Amino acid sequence: MAILWNPAMPANALNVREAEVAAQALGVQLHLVEARGPEAFDSAFAAMTSAHAGALLVLGDAMFMQHRRRLAELAAMSRLPTMHNAREFVEAGGLFSYGASRTDTRRRAATYVDKILKGAKPADLPVERPMKFELVINLKTAQALDLTIPPTLLFQADEVIQ
Fold it and tell me: Which CATH number covers residue 54?
């Protein structure tokens, strides 16, 4: 399994370490592939192909989000099923995403803004974790990759793109 990550994004180093621990426990071989900018995408996918990666996890990064359509095109050409943390990647052609609901997160942020505007001190407000997560699956991408998504997984999905 390949992991596409941007080492310029500090939080990704922790995600990579956690993925390495999980992969070792599961007996999965990881291929870490760096991309600091879109100019590195072609060589990154060439490295994944030469490593015979069977799937790709794209770590969260604003630069990847900005170029999500290009990443989806390269994944399709490389016949790599992709996993993401945000639905926008799946809407662009990725296979599936699982992550915090951005809509719910923004809605909850609005309540914080409201409290601050009413005089609450930001330092006194508790830090909250995301409360709602969503699974989004792109069936069109699955069909293009000749993958069958189990009906139980489709049933659990918050959205299935056809």
Answer: 3.40.50.2300
